[in-house]
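A protein record in our archive is deliberately plain, so that people and models can read it alike. The tokens are whole numbers drawn from a learned vocabulary of local backbone shapes. For reference, a complete record is included directly beneath this paragraph.
>
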Amino acid sequence: WVWDNNTCLNMSLRHGVTFHDGTRFNATHVQWTFDRLYNLIDLGESQLGDLYLFPNGTWILDHINIVSEYEIQCILTVPYAAFLDLLTFSGSYIIPKDSMPFNNIINYGDAGVNLIGTGPFKFMEYLTEDKVVFSKWADYWGTPANVPGLIFQVIPDANTRNQAMLNREIHFLPDPLPDMVNTFKANPNLYFKDGPDNLVIQYIGMNNKAISKTMRQVASYAFDYTYALSEVMKNQGTRLHGPIPAGMKTYNGSIPYVSRNVTKARELMINAGLVPGASLPANASLLTNDAFWTSKAGLPSTAFASYNYTYNADNQVRHDMGVLLRSSLAQCGIYLTLNGITWKQFVYMLYDHAPYNRNQLEFFFLGWGPDYNDPENYVSPLFSNASYSNGAQVDDPTLQVWIEDSRSTTDEATRDQIFQDVQEYLQTDLMPWIFVYQGHNLDVWVKNLRGYSANILDKHYFGHVSFDTTSTPPGEAVPIPIVPLLAAIVSAVALISVVEGRKLKRRS
């Protein structure tokens, strides 16, 4: 590719690529894919549409010109610094023209639905709430896959997922529970991989409409980060400093960030008039009087403030983080109610899906993995007042200007400074979340699986994996082959069953 200017990108397409239905890949399908995408965005049918729009609703990509069968021009409405990174996101994957309805999204469970791509594995079927099945694509343009199929098993409950891996009912498990790490490490038939750090962030969101900046600062200083990492996470995570994780470009570890300081939190409350009758320095002794603060937090009626903490109840880590938050806030006379609900109910609240709404959320625990490798993909979707994914309902004029400027400027130095300003503002002043931790890549797989490599974006690629048939552990599960022509001896290791919890873009 080569840029003619800041709004015109010339791209040469790969020759010799065929879709899973045998259609030849070329410029026509690229143009149609993006025409359909923006049509669905305009119709309100695309859940990921905000990634392809500026905060004011303007399209990022105006149109695609076909220069020849394998040459295109991407014409942007205005400059957009992260456009090349956006093209690597799964929502930008090319599908054959007319293979999907132009005016409607598809429902995976509908009869006759067929997902068509160009990758090393071909979609076979989706069984609702059960599994997604793929088979090897023999005409893949690159190096063919070594295994003849994939099964992504749907197991929503985290404990059940981990037990399935321990029983070797599956071959691969990402993100094992912290309490299970030592068990997996000790199992001679399993391989446990720790690292590298990934770019997935975990945080306690705070409803910025319902919780004032002062109270957000209080909560941020009161929270026990050391305990969260050492006891709840069993040291399987790294402290998250702010909205941009270590390893992402523009991250700056030298920018100040919040560490636990209960005295500072109490000082903020007294100075803000949140403790009736108290002032500083007259009542300085209250800053170290733990009994005074915890006695107030015993009941909502006596507490200086009362909030709820909502989480998906099938996630033990998020429950434990809520218990820790409750005890941390009690040190400042704040009462917290834990509200464990189903993941479906939680998502409905987060995204304003009737009969729930996001105003029901005050404190909540959530994670975020980047769609593509650019800091804008954290700052804009999570903090823009125009973003559907802004679950904390952040609406700050200063921040909004930076967000819009970060998307349109193409000068690297200017853009880097914008993100430095954003990090400092969110970490030392606005404090829209409690920034908790950044994850390690933690994966478990059966001992005879070869060729898997983790990456910092926490994306799983199985095109290169294979099974060592000479070292199958005793009692290894025998999956049902989805390629009937395979010999029976191969069928014992024919498929790799991969388990993922059901999740949206958000990390569940």
